């Protein structure tokens, strides 16, 4: 019998705080991009977070089990995780943080479709199919709703948006691999460690290969590295999985739309990014679709982990 609880005030407060933290990520990356390239910053944060997760595992007496069938899927999710953030880092060079967070957080839509095809227990219900349709309609509107005339700047922005969407697909593929392999039964810390190590190696190599390894260690850069390494990639992950162990995942999924919403608000507030009407009209059905898909509606809604949350 599932002993997890319905949401209470503590869970709701923590979820709102977590969504605000996750929505701030792309904004902080964009704000410090002049002093440290996003690809380098994400690589460094992944390395620091991997060390912190390893420390937690050591303190708990956990060990990496290399004979439990997780090595091969672990390498795959590590590569996918790193590739996702390669796309995010490159996309942030071309589009706004608010655009990036919306397109990246389409991951639950693609994850739900992949799991529907891969696992019989993850079949989508009518409400979820409605969410998928709304999200894809919103994506089309967001791409086609640019009010600016055709120009090099617009083309640049569309390319960044497209890379963000590809990042969401890569994130969804990570979820599908985790759910359909031996990683689904592995400790969450072990799965995360595979991802963080993969991102650290791939992104640092990419930063040097593309000439984006320069770092100007300003106060803002230090603050950003601490925020991303300790708060986002480490602390928020631990809180998120505690919530999944304590409360019903289908209830937590209702909050999924808040992360991109916070990203839009923070981008406009802190970076003075314009919110185009066309993009906003597309983003709203995307957010609603994410909420519908993540909140359940299928036969296994109470057991389904929320795809695409802790990032």
Describe the structure.
The longest helix is centred in the middle third of the chain and has 28 residues, at 152-179. It contains 12 helices and no strands. The chain has one domain (38-294). It starts with 8 loop residues before the first helix and ends in a 17-residue tail after the last helix. The chain is mostly helical and 311 residues long.
Cα(first) to Cα(last) distance is 29 Å
Discrete helix count = 12
Strand runs, count: 0
Largest sheet: none
Mean pLDDT: 86
Q: How many domains make up the coordinates? A: 1
Shape label:
globular
By secondary-structure content and strand pairing, the structural class works out as mainly alpha
Strand content: under 5%
The radius of gyration is 19 Å
- Low-pLDDT parts are 298-308
Report helical residue fraction: over 70%
Topology order in helix (H) and strand (E) letters? HHHHHHHHHHHH
What keywords describe this structure?
mainly alpha, 311 residues, 0% strand, globular
Task: Offer a quick outline of the entry.
By secondary structure, the protein is mostly helical. It has helices at 9-31, 38-60, 71-91, 97-104, 107-118, 126-144, 152-179, 188-209, 219-246, 249-252, 258-270, 277-294.
Give the secondary structure arrangement, pairings included:
Layout: H1 9-31, H2 38-60, H3 71-91, H4 97-104, H5 107-118, H6 126-144, H7 152-179, H8 188-209, H9 219-246, H10 249-252, H11 258-270, H12 277-294
Helix pairs in contact: 1-4, 1-9, 1-11, 2-3, 2-8, 2-9, 3-7, 3-8, 4-7, 4-11, 5-7, 6-12
């Amino acid at each position: 019998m599932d002993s997890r609880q319905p949401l209470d005030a503590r869970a709701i407060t923590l979820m709102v705080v977590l969504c605000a933290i996750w929505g701030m990520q792309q904004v902080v990356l964009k704000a410090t991009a002049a002093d440290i390239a996003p690809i380098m910053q994400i690589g460094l944060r992944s390395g620091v977070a991997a060390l912190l997760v390893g420390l937690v595992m050591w303190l708990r007496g956990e060990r990496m089990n290399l004979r439990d069938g997780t090595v091969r899927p672990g390498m795959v999710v590590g590569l996918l995780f790193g590739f996702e953030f390669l796309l995010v880092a490159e996309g942030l060079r071309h589009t706004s943080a608010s655009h990036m967070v919306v397109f990246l957080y389409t991951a639950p839509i693609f994850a739900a479709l992949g799991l529907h095809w891969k696992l019989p227990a993850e079949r989508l219900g009518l409400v979820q199919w409605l969410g998928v349709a709304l999200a894809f309609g919103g994506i089309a509107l967001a791409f086609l709703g640019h009010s600016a005339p055709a120009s090099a700047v617009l083309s640049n922005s569309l390319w960044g948006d497209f890379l963000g969407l590809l990042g969401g697909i890569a994130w969804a593929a990570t979820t599908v691999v985790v759910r359909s392999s031996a990683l689904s039964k592995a400790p969450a810390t072990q799965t995360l460690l595979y991802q963080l190590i993969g991102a650290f190696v791939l992104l640092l190599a990419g930063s040097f290969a593309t000439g984006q390894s320069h770092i100007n260690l300003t106060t803002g850069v230090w603050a950003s590295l601490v925020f991303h390494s300790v708060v986002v990639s480490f602390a928020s992950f631990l809180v998120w999985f505690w919530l999944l162990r304590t409360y019903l995942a289908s209830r937590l999924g209702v909050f999924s739309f808040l992360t991109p919403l916070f990203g839009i608000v923070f981008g406009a507030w802190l970076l003075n990014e314009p919110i185009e009407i066309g993009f906003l009209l597309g983003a709203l059905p995307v957010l609603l679709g994410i909420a519908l898909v993540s909140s359940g509606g299928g036969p296994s809604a109470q057991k389904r982990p929320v795809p695409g949350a802790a990032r």
